[in-house]
UniProtKB/TrEMBL annotation:
Family classification: Belongs to the Ntn-hydrolase family.
Annotated site residue numbers, Cleavage: D232, T233
Gene3D superfamilies: (Glycosyl)asparaginase
Entry binding sites for substrate: R261, V262, G263, D264, T284, G285, D286, G287
The protein, known as: beta-aspartyl-peptidase
Enzyme class: hydrolase
Taxonomic source organism: Acacia crassicarpa (northern wattle)
Signal peptide: 1-35
Subunit-structure text: Heterotetramer of two alpha and two beta chains arranged as a dimer of alpha/beta heterodimers.
Enzyme Commission number: 3.4.19.5
Active site: T233
Any one Gene Ontology cellular component term annotated for this protein: cytoplasm
Length: 368
């Protein structure tokens, strides 16, 4: 009797395994791996910025989409805003202090290395974000301030000394002086004349000699008004093609601030924060209040504990509003999956986003 050997049939389970393996391999082409997470490629590169600073976001996008690191893209984006003098509150030529001078605050943070560079109350140098990067890359410090920050920046190759005032800022300052230097950021003081010098008083009751002056007006009317065009910051976050996260900020601070004042712009954890393991946060608003709560550090830590960006942003703003119900401010939370959400208090806030799925920058509106 003859026997014919039939080809061995592969077990059905083996064929199924190969089929699933091929599907997984094809799917992996559409994905990128970051740490222990797998992200859809369309989620990054990603650029997020406070306010509709469209040209700044486009500049950052061109940089990161062309292969630049997150840090370099942040610097490129914020630099564009400084050059454009966004809203008159970023870069030179805006927000004069009580002496009529414009100064710069800026910060950059690398979410991979956790390095930070910042400059505060910097005079005579217009390139705030570039100066901050020089501090991060070429010193073991985190923050340099005042005229010495300017000397450092110039010594490292930035242009200067430069007059940071403009015709607009000088005219704004002159009108403020004509209005007896009101509103201002002073409290519990009395001026010798309309614009100082000031000396402290133990009581808000004004002396009889002032009873017929403008200083008898309601004390609330003396308070400075923080608004869209008197106080603002560009705060930007970027996730690059490798999944690295960075943030940066730049501002010329609060209009008619007391000379030497430093806002939250150069304060890490307040105006911005980044951590590759979690994501990033950007903030804008009344920095004198917001820096007391480190809202961006709070946002990132809340996301680390599992909160979605929307809830993390809302929680950080609510913490401030409970203690200071009249403050104005906003935050944007971005997790490492590219999901973003904002929250605000005291004003309607808008922020800008660009990623690979978008044809151009898109602006999102957040209601208080």
């Amino acid at each position: 009797m003859a026997f014919r050997m039939e080809p061995m049939q592969q077990p059905r389970s083996s064929s199924l395994s190969k089929f699933l393996f091929l599907l997984a391999l094809l799917h992996f082409v559409e994905l990128k791996v970051w740490g222990h997470q797998i992200l859809e490629s369309e989620q990054y590169p990603l650029v997020v910025s406070t306010w509709p600073f469209l040209e700044a976001v486009r500049a950052a996008w061109r940089s990161v989409d062309g292969g630049s690191s997150a840090v370099d893209a942040v610097v490129d984006g914020c630099s564009a805003c400084e050059e454009l003098r966004c809203d008159g509150t970023v870069g030179p030529g805006g927000s004069p202090d009580e002496n009529g001078e414009t100064t710069i605050d800026a910060m950059v943070m690398d979410g991979l290395t956790m390095e930070v560079g910042a400059v505060a109350a910097m005079r005579y140098v217009k390139d705030g974000i570039k100066a901050a990067k020089l501090v991060m890359k070429h010193t073991k410090h985190t923050l340099l301030a005042g005229e010495k920050a300017s000397e450092f920046a110039i010594s490292m190759g930035l242009s200067g000394p430069t007059n940071l005032s403009s015709t607009e800022s000088i005219n704004k300052w002159a009108q403020w002086k004509d209005n007896k230097c009101q509103p201002n950021f002073r409290k519990n003081v009395l001026p010798i004349d309309n614009c100082g010098p000031y000396h402290p008083t133990k009581s808000l009751d004004l002396p009889e000699m002032c009873s017929n002056t403008a200083y008898m007006q309601d004390i609330d009317s003396l308070l400075p008004h923080v608004g869209l065009h008197s106080h603002d910051t560009i705060s930007m976050a970027v996730i690059d093609k490798m999944g690295r996260v960075a943030v940066g900020t730049s501002t010329n601070g609060a209009t008619f601030k007391i000379p030497g004042r430093v806002g939250d712009g150069p304060i890490v954890g307040s105006s911005a924060y980044a951590d590759n393991e979690v994501g990033a946060c950007c903030a804008t608003g009344d920095g004198d209040i917001m820096m007391r709560f480190l809202p961006c550090y709070q946002v990132v830590e809340s996301m680390r504990l599992g909160m979605e960006p929307k809830h993390a942003a809302q929680d950080a703003i609510a913490r401030i509003a409970r203690r200071f119900p009249d403050f104005v401010g906003a935050v944007v939370a971005i997790n490492k999956n590219g999901e973003h959400a904002g929250a605000c208090h005291g004003w309607t806030f808008r922020y800008s986003v660009r990623n690979s799925a978008m044809k151009d920058v898109e602006v999102f509106t957040v209601l208080p």
